[in-house]
Amino acid sequence: MAANEQSSIDQLALDEFGSTLRGELVRPGDGSYDERRRVWNASIDRYPVLIARCAGVADVIEAVRFARTHQLLVAVRAGGHSYPGYGVCDDGMVIDLSLMKGIRVDPEARTVRAQAGVLLGELDRETQAFGCAVPAGFISHTGMAGLTLGGGIGFTMRKLGLTIDNLLSVDLITAEGEFVKASAQENADLFWGLRGGGGNFGIATEFEFRLNPLGPVIYAGPIFWPLDEAPRVLRFYRDWIADCPDELTTLVTERRAPATLAGLPPDLVGQHMIAITSIYAGSIDEGEKVVRPLKGFDSPALDRCAPMPYLTLQQLFNASFPRGGGTTSVRVTSPSSMTTSSTSWCSTASRSSLRSRPWGSGKAVVRSLASARARLLSTAGAPATRSTSAETPRAPRASKKSEHGSIDSGRPFSRITPACT
Ligand SMILES: Cc1cc2nc3c(=O)[nH]c(=O)nc-3n(C[C@H](O)[C@H](O)[C@H](O)COP(=O)(O)OP(=O)(O)OC[C@H]3O[C@@H](n4cnc5c(N)ncnc54)[C@H](O)[C@@H]3O)c2cc1C
Questions:
Q1: With contact defined as beta carbons under 8 Å apart, do 168 and 209 qualify?
Q2: Mutate to test the pocket of ligand 1, among 93, 142, 169 (most ligand atoms within 8 A of CB)
Q3: How much distance in Å is there from the Cα of 284 to the middle of ligand 1?
Q4: Which helix (H) or strand (E) is 80 found in, with range?
Q5: Is residue 359 pLDDT above 50, yes or no?
């Protein structure tokens, strides 16, 4: 349905739909319309005819049924971080879940239930109050819902697996507007699909995760060397990482050193650096012991690897990914133990997860990626891995390009800027 056909939806029906919602119905012309149609990637500029800001499950059901009745294209929005902008569409209805912020930790059962509008940082805040964590992404303003449905990779994935490895159940509204539950025991095939299948199976309204004891302080942080030392650093890294325990996840980046990086010698400000960020999901003492050889390699220019609050770690890179798409000056070179290929964060793992393992652990995927990457690194200085997005479109694919390059063009989202300040 085109935007100018909005009038073909009976005004009475629209008014009734709006008044039924516990949340809010936003339409073109409303004061908040532009704000509400905006997503994280500012190069996405789409104009839905309706934005249903759902406050709960009943609103989602109502919105799905309304869209069916009026044959509206639907885009589902949770955290709004889909790089190609799948959370908003032209000429259809956005079902916006961002008001659904409920989180409930059960400390005895070591589980947490979170509604679909929760962001990663919000989940961390509640779970850390109980000394626990759900492994999720690197940037804490990413939506928990979209990230989980795509697989979910993050700082502790070598030890704790993907986010979907910790997923216990999902509440879902089907395309018919029916409520269903999915878990290993109930609608198991649907649950299998949800663990990496993106938004293709309905609208997830609530997620239940297993909690892992972690924090409040962990051993983590980046170590920097001048870029011309990268070949030697990477050769050392290749040999050292091969025997490191699963508790350690590492991330290798190349970036210009920002002036805000406290402790950096002035002559290195603005210079290209290679950084290895270590995250140890275990005891501080063990972490210190495991990372010691790296810290001692060839007098790093700056060593910021030390005990730090888990919540600080989870926000460490946020400043480099501001709303709008951020600046891009650093390449993540896909380290073996971490496998942040620079493009879609979750694609490789979640696809493997879908293809090969109904109930397998994401850790197995990570390990196989690790060996693939080890092979890559055996020719030290290997380039960033290319991959494509695993997100499955509910709305037309974005065609615009941003300064990062377009995912549609197959170009990787290859330049990201972790802020290690
Ligand atoms: C800055 C940035 C950092 C990122 N970091 C990581 C990372 O560290 N690890 C990682 O694994 N990924 C990462 N990603 C990728 C991210 O996980 C995906 O883009 C994910 O889709 C974002 O989820 P969202 O809820 O914010 O997105 P939205 O744009 O709100 O949703 C994207 C799509 O996901 C589907 N979807 C979302 N919520 C629901 C729901 N409740 N029910 C059904 N379908 C739904 C819909 O198809 C929707 O259109 C990052 C992305 C960005 C932009």
A1: yes
A2: 142
A3: 31
A4: none
A5: no
**pLDDT for the residue 370:** 38
| 97 CA distance to ligand 1 middle (Å) | 12
82 C-beta closer than 6 A to ligand 1? yes
pLDDT tens digits for range 45-85: 999 999 999 999 999 999 999 999 999 999 999 999 999 99
**Length of the chain (residues):** 421
Centre of ligand 1 to C-alpha 145, Å, is 7
Hey, whose CA ends up nearest to atom 34 of ligand 1? Answer: 146
CB 155 within 8 A of CB 311: no
CATH number 3.40.462.20 is the correct assignment for the domain at 217-377: yes
CATH number for 103-213: choose from 3.20.20.30, 3.30.465.10, 3.10.290.10, 3.40.50.2300: 3.30.465.10
Q: Give the neighbor-by-neighbor strand order of the sheet with 167-173.
A: 103-106, 111-115, 203-210, 167-173, 179-183
Quick: pLDDT tens for 125-138.
999 999 999 999 99
- Is this structure's pTM higher than 0.90? no
Q: Which CATH number fits domain 10-96: 3.30.1330.10, 3.90.1330.10, 3.20.20.140, 3.30.43.10?
A: 3.30.43.10
